What does this fold into?
Amino acid sequence: MKIGIIQFPGSNCERETKLAVQRAGMEPVEFLWNQDREILRSLDGYIIVGGFSYEDRSRAGIIAALDPVMLEIAAQSEKGKPILGICNGAQILVETGLVPGLENNKPGIVLAENKRLAQGKILGTGFYNAWIDMRVSDTYQRNAFTRHLTQKNILHVPVAHGEGRFVIPNALLQEMTMHGLNVFQYCDANGLIDEHFPVNPNGSVANIAAVSNKNGNVMAMMPHPERTPNGDPIFNSMRDYIADGKVEQGVPLMYYPRTHKMPSYQVAQGAHESVVELIITDNQALTVQNALQQLGMPVSVKRYTHWEIFGESDAVQEAMESGVLYNPRKEKNTPPARAVARGSVYEHRGSNKEPRPSGSGVLVRSKDDIIGAQKLQTLNDYFGIKKIDAIKHSVLWEFSSDDENIQDLLSRIMNIHIIANPFAHDCYHY
It folds into this structure.
């Protein structure tokens, strides 16, 4: 049995994955994203390894998800071949829509930034590395990866990720639970499901650690079973599934994602608006630009950090000077009125000279703005700045093109979700 070890630029778990495949008696075949895709067709299964593909630029997994290689992986999944995405591989599978498997692989869930809370305090966001316990859920699907497991088997394995929090609409979560697609859940050492940190290491809804598609041959898992023999039952199950040669065929899930509208951005009443621009090379913007151009969209891309700060003016000024909201060594704070003179994402309209949207910008704000909340907590607790009531964080993207209508391009850009996932972000015309 030959298992493709799928790697993108930034993948870093190929060795551990190869060893896990070998322990299960299968043959690992390394496959780089730029090799001939026909090689994939002769393989029996696939594992998309962990790491940081494209340095998680724009959003973890999204750039790799748009690579043509994933079209071939999707085609092989329809033949019933097992596909396991681990950590970054899970993020890639989620962004392609191969899990949970809605009609036409529409995206229906998201892996959002980690959220670690205790007693109302933010303990941290971003990358978290620890050993955790997990087990199959009470309603788990007996699929290509669970044949050697029951609820009594507690797997002690590592997690190491920054965006591992499953966010799933309630209606879809209910349907997934009914079919057992919430395959693995974080638990304590006794198998009890506890939604609080550290048992739930990232704030994932329903303690979900892994989800599968309805046919049971594709699974996205955030923990790393390949890094320890404790995870071997997953790979042994994969081996036995291939040996059986039985392919499950089913219909997609019934859940149909609603259309997400994009209104025009309006500064909230009482908010102080600030735009922060990098003065060093913005590799995130360049990566998005290159990915769009490879998809046939001739655009130039710029990216800014956007803040809305609610509080007294002197406290806002103190916050901007604290170094918490931007680093003056590599960024500069550009109030919107000054951005007009630069010819950036603003333009003058009307006699009052107020900046107005140029129509080529998109402001992306997390539905669960943990970054803004964390910045406020830092300013309050460590800098003693108490006269700020709230902070909202967003990313502002600017697109321009000399070759095509920018509004047409903008529609295409939003349709592929490269700068935002509709289940994690709200988007506004800017």
The chain has eleven helices and 21 strands. The chain has a mean pLDDT of 92. The first helix runs from residue 14 to 23. The first strand starts at residue 2 and ends at 7.
